[in-house]
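seq:
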Amino acid sequence: MRAPVLLLPSPLLPVSAYAGLASALERAGTEVDIAPVDGGPGLDPHALVREWAGLVEPGTTLLAHSNAGYLAPATWAAAGSVGRDAGGVVFMDAALPPESGPAPLAPARFREHLAGLADDDGLLPPCTRWWPREAVAQVIPADRFPEIDRECPRLPLSYLDTEMTPPSGWTAWPQAYLAFGSTYADELTAARSRGWSHRAMPGGHLHFLVDPDEVARTVLGLRERLTGLAARRPPGP
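struct:
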């Protein structure tokens, strides 16, 4: 049995959305755990990083989707000596923190769009309601929409204003990038420029809902390429 994958879900989505991908990874012969997220108005990304870091084991590969990409490097660093023996990070159609310095958990233009959706208490609607229904239908299969829409957390706009500072030198760690379509084209370009292993698959932002087995195989292919890099990385996160 290979070392486990720790799937870091986007805090903007219900954890249940990742169950099919986790099952596909298990069918491919890999242990996988989905990191918990207690989404809601009180969600603290710094506390989330500490909680997730406690789940990292030697050999663990972090698989970070979407907004969780901002938190993945900090999670690996917070795992301390265990993190130094971890098996790298695969970003799956995910945001990337800056190379250095603090940054909020949403780009400025996106945050501006969301500010217009928040209610009088500063709460955002479920992320399934951030765009017109016809646009969401291109990302979430029709048979999954009711469940995901019902279980999506409502986060405060202030969550996205929280600043996270990535660990020094994080871009040199063993990392890979998997893009779905062109939503994160800039991040894929950054991964290429840094020499990371990378793949691009046609599909929407939640393509793992459409073809979990193919996504799982691609993730594991990238993970295999990280194994040698992890063995050669400098000490310390």
